[in-house]
User: Fold this.
Amino acid sequence: MRSIDWRRDRVVAIDQTRLPHDLALIEIGTVEALIDAIKRLAIRGAPALGAAGALGVALAVRLSPDDPASVRSAAAAVRGARPTAVNLAWGVDRALARLDQGPDAVLAEALAVLEEDVACNRALSERGAAWLLDNVAGPVTIQTHCNAGALACVEWGTALGVVRALHERGALAHVYAAETRPLLQGARLTVWELARMGVPHTLVVDSAAASVLARGQAKAVVVGADRVTANGDVINKVGTYPLALAAAHAGVPMVVAAPESTIDLSTPTGKDVDIEVRGPDEVTTWGGAPVAPAGTGTLNYAFDVTPAALVTAIVTESRVILPATGGRPDDRPPR
Ligand SMILES: CSC[C@H]1O[C@H](OP(=O)(O)O)[C@H](O)[C@@H]1O
Assistant:
């Protein structure tokens, strides 16, 4: 089952807010409903957002086939639903570029985005597994953060795609999944995916992940990304930066698995990226019940910036970039 797809005349997606307890699909027939699904993280994860962006334009042009101005306005609203993952804007732009050729051409481009994502993630997963087998003593143990699995993509996954490739080779011993406060993408989604894959795993609280590395229980960190800037800075779920610091101190490789569509050569460094700040309720409540005194102020960064110097390897479908030793995404544009 794909996390997001197109059926007849609408977007169909897994509602990730209902996992792990309910595997429920949502059918999205309007741009407003798509934007809502993106904002409330029913649809989430950089590659999945790229697909949602492209399908959002296909939806808009079907609803307003004779009004390109309305389609462009709707596309801009989808593009702005969440600011940090470059894939959302990239997916919108991919489909919008075909607007002059009509609804069928826009849909064809959007569907191509989905198929390319699947192919890219399978390729980067194999490349990442090979890099880890060449650089980490086996059997491999991995610390993950957030969810960069099939749910965050069209299918297959990026960081969990690497995990899947290692598991299929019989080379994976264990995965430690950080819960990933406040929305618990690790506890709710990554653990759910690892269980379905049959991968041995342990859930840890975010603040324990550094000790898992320091004690040698995990020999590599593997995460996804929402944007990689031209100098190799990695923007990913908040908590990735401290994990990279811990990995460096423990002498453990920090591996980022991401398709080329997540690399943004137009943005020089992580300092130039708009980091989404989300509302206080995600931090001050759990299950609707307050966990902090009413009115408590919060600083709910959804992402953080890991400097290139702390990134051992960025694995894409076409290359491995080594930022910590001077490699840069803009050194050699993909072939
Ligand atoms: C494979 S991209 C997954 C990436 O997206 C997540 O963010 P969110 O759950 O807010 O969409 C997180 O940064 C993951 O690493």
